[in-house]
Structures are given as structure tokens and as C-alpha cells.
Specification:
Strand content of chain A: under 5%
Largest sheet of chain B: 2 strands, antiparallel
Strand order of the largest sheet of chain B: 1-2
Order of helices and strands of chain A: HHHHHHHHH
Largest sheet of chain A: none
Order of helices and strands of chain B: HHHHHHHHEEHH
Number of strands of chain B: 2
Number of helices of chain B: 10
Helix content of chain B: 55-70%
Structural class of chain B: mainly alpha
Number of domains of chain A: 1
Shape of chain B: globular
Structural class of chain A: mainly alpha
Distance between the termini of chain A: 7 Å
Largest interface: A-B, 50 and 45 residues
Oligomer: heterodimer
Shape of chain A: globular
Strand content of chain B: under 5%
Low-confidence stretches of chain B: 1-5
Radius of gyration of chain A: 19 Å
Chain lengths: 204, 215
């Protein structure tokens, strides 16, 4: 039950985009049509689902204060948590490289559409943010980390799909010139965020 | 980098890479980079200010280092090299903040770590530092960091003033206003309002600079 609660919470209440602004850069830039948004969203879900648990294990067995105790009791005092930024980003960057190679091999058209934004998943704050929040929240076991990674990934995917669908319609509307493009995208995201605030307080 | 002497240190071109980010090429408003932290830390002015300084420092330092290394980094693994350099700089800044301004460092929480994934850094390194000498890269880094910082502080001022009636923790709106029925706009403190403020700032800036508008 608690796991299900965490899952729902990470999708709707603690939504990556609407409540933490994670991954805004690619969110605004790639949400111009639904197909590309779908591709990027799925890639983010996959990378989140794999990197959050990996980083959880890394944190649990290498970085945390006293985490190296399993090697020898002499290491009980060692606290490597200041290294976590650099190791987390290394795990993420290598995974993104992997996803990039897979996408290039199986779907060249999607690869061309995503262009520069595929390598930029590595610097998508949503993914790094997921790992850092995982570290901060101290999940009791790796299962929770998997659920959190999956939920946050789905939350991001959901947000970018909604946004892309709205922006496809927006091209037909009469917007002041200066507001076209990113301006209106921000305002729409803000309104969506207000809509998502309704979910806060849901408990399963 | 011994050939640097030919160009004067503050030549027009160098100054341009310093001043452009404040207006025509602002990283937040025009290039739409580094939005995540710009929105998350701006509930109050103080953390916004600290964040702006941290990003400026990281941006300038990593720009210089990568610009100095640019001829020795193999093209294929450059992203990972960049990330490692940036992460090392961010760790320095993080330890520094923890040592000297612990309260604010707690308030910024994960967003200090997220400087690593701030697209401004990667963007500037890819677009500028890898093809320029260290000194212009340094100016470019400082300029972009400050250009980002200005936007951050402006959003921070708007949100704190209207959201809690204070600036940097000091009360600005007099008690007489509250007695007359003025109420703080609590929505300003919530995430959605930050997005709308950025949208409006972009709107204002683009109405002034006609050439930035999308057709």
C-alpha cells in the first residue's frame, strides 16, 4: 500500500515538472509536437527507471557514511557522500550513451528528430534530480527506489505529452507576437501546474 | 595559450561576449536554458542571490578549464569530460556553501547539486568555450552566469514582495496596508506562479526586442 502511495504520489503530487521544475529546458524545447515528445518521454522513463535504483545501490553500498562497512569494519568511519554528485552523473551519462546507441540503431527517424536533445538527457535535471531526491529521502529498500524512479519518469512523460498536445492546438490560435513560442509555453505550464495542485493531499 | 597577447584584454569583441547575455542573448529568457533552478530557488531573494553567485562561479571556472583543455579532449567522450569537470566545480561550491552559509545551503537542498545539470553550463561550453581561448571563455562564463543571476533575482524580488511582503527577510509592506485589508498573494509562493512570471517577463522582453519574436 505504501508503495502504491509512493507511485501515485511521484506521478501526480510530486510531479517532476509542475512541482519541482525539473527538466524544464528540454520540456519547453521538445514539446512542439506529440510524436517527438512521446519519444523523449519514453527515453526519460527508461533512464529514470534504471539510474535511480543503480544510484540507490551506489549510495547504499559505497557513498553513505559507514556504507563501506561490508568490506571491512575498518571503513566504518568513511563518509564518501561528497562524491555523490560526480558518481551519480557518471552513471547517468553512461546510461544515456547506451540509450542513444539503441535509439540510433532501431529508430533513425526518431534519432534525427530528437537531435541534440538525446545527449542532453544526460543534463536533464529530472534524472539527476530523481537521484538526488532518492538520496535525500532515504528509501528503506531498493524496491521503493525502483517505484520512485518509474513514477517520476511517468510523471515527466505525462507532463510533456499534455504540453505537446496543447501546443499543437496553440499554433492555430491568435497569440500576441511577443508571446509566441516560449512565453505562452511558460504560462500554459503554469496553468497546468495549478490544475495539478488539485491532486495534492490525495492519500491512498 | 601564449599567443593571447595580440588581442587587447578588453577588446570590443571580448566585452560583447560579456554583455550580450544581459539582453539579446540572455540564457534564461532567450536561450531558455537553466529554467529548473531559476524557478525553484526564487521563493525568496537571498537563496536566489546565492544561487546566482554559485552558478556564475561554476560557469566561469568550468569554462576556463575546458577552454584550456579543448585541444586535448577527444571529441567522442567530451560530454563525459565536461560533466566531470562541472561536477568537480559544483562539489567545491557545495562544500564552500556548507561551510560558510549553512542555512541557505539547506534551503537550496538538491538544487546545488542540480547546477551540474544546469543546461547553461553545458550550453556555454559546447557553444563557446570549446572554440575560444580561456580569457574570452572566462568573460563569457561570468556574463552568462550574471545574466542568469539578474533574472533569478528579479523573479525572487517579485515573488517575495508579493508572496510574503518582505525582501531578503526584511518587512517592506507596512502594517497599515494589512490593516486596510491588503492580503499577501499566497499563490506567489507556489510553483505555478513562478512559471507565469517567467512567461510574462519573456513577453515584456520580446515586445521590446522585436527581432527576438517568433514569426
Amino acid at each position: 500500500m505504501e508503495t502504491l502511495n509512493l507511485f501515485i504520489k511521484s506521478i501526480f503530487i510530486d510531479n517532476m515538472v509542475f512541482s519541482f521544475f525539473f527538466g524544464m529546458c528540454s520540456y519547453i524545447a521538445v514539446s512542439k509536437n506529440v510524436k517527438t515528445a512521446m519519444g523523449l518521454g519514453l527515453a526519460v522513463i527508461f533512464v529514470m527507471l534504471t539510474t535511480v535504483p543503480l544510484n540507490y545501490l551506489l549510495n547504499e553500498y559505497v557513498l553513505k557514511a559507514g556504507a563501506l562497512q561490508w568490506i571491512s569494519p575498518a571503513f566504518a568511519e568513511v563518509d564518501l557522500s561528497f562524491l555523490s554528485f560526480i558518481l551519480f552523473i557518471a552513471v547517468i551519462a553512461s546510461f544515456v550513451q547506451l540509450v542513444e546507441m539503441v535509439v540510433e540503431k532501431f529508430s533513425p527517424s526518431l534519432y534525427n528528430q530528437l537531435g541534440i536533445f538525446l545527449p542532453l538527457i544526460a543534463v536533464n535535471c529530472a534524472i539527476m534530480g530523481g537521484s538526488l531526491f532518492m538520496q535525500q529521502r532515504n528509501f528503506p529498500d531498493v524496491g521503493q527506489a525502483v517505484v520512485y524512479g518509474l513514477g517520476s519518469g511517468i510523471g515527466w512523460w505525462l507532463a510533456i505529452i499534455i504540453m505537446a498536445a496543447i501546443r499543437e492546438k496553440l499554433t492555430y490560435s491568435n497569440i500576441p507576437n511577443a508571446l509566441k513560442g516560449p512565453g505562452i509555453a511558460f504560462i500554459v505550464t503554469g496553468l497546468l501546474g495549478m490544475a495539478f495542485m488539485i491532486f495534492s493531499g490525495i492519500q491512498l | 595559450m601564449s599567443k593571447e597577447g595580440k588581442e587587447p584584454m578588453f577588446s570590443a569583441k571580448n566585452m560583447q561576449s560579456f554583455t550580450n547575455p544581459f539582453n539579446k542573448n540572455n540564457p534564461v529568457l532567450v536561450q531558455i536554458l537553466g529554467i529548473c533552478s531559476a524557478l525553484a530557488v526564487t521563493v525568496q531573494v537571498k537563496p536566489a542571490f546565492v544561487m546566482a553567485l554559485s552558478v556564475t562561479a561554476v560557469c566561469a571556472l568550468s569554462n576556463v578549464i575546458l577552454s584550456a583543455l579543448r585541444k586535448t579532449i577527444p571529441d567522442r567522450i567530451r560530454i563525459i569530460v565536461q560533466l566531470v569537470v562541472i561536477a568537480a566545480m559544483v562539489i567545491l561550491v557545495d562544500q564552500f556553501l556548507k561551510a560558510y552559509v549553512y542555512d541557505i545551503s539547506k534551503q537550496l537542498s538538491v538544487y546545488v547539486g542540480l547546477i551540474i545539470t544546469n543546461c547553461i553550463l553545458m550550453g556555454r561550453i559546447e557553444a563557446f568555450a570549446l572554440s575560444n581561448k580561456p580569457w574570452p571563455s572566462f568573460l563569457d562564463g561570468v556574463g552568462n552566469g550574471l545574466g542568469y543571476g539578474v533574472v533569478l533575482v528579479v523573479i525572487g524580488i517579485i515573488r517575495e514582495l508579493f508572496g510574503s511582503g518582505t525582501l531578503g527577510g526584511i518587512k517592506i509592506i507596512p502594517d497599515a496596508f494589512y490593516e486596510a485589508g491588503y492580503v499577501n498573494n499566497g499563490l506567489m509562493l507556489f510553483p505555478p506562479m513562478a512559471l507565469i512570471i517567467v512567461g510574462v517577463i519573456i513577453w515584456v522582453q520580446r515586445s521590446k526586442n522585436k527581432d527576438l519574436q517568433e514569426k
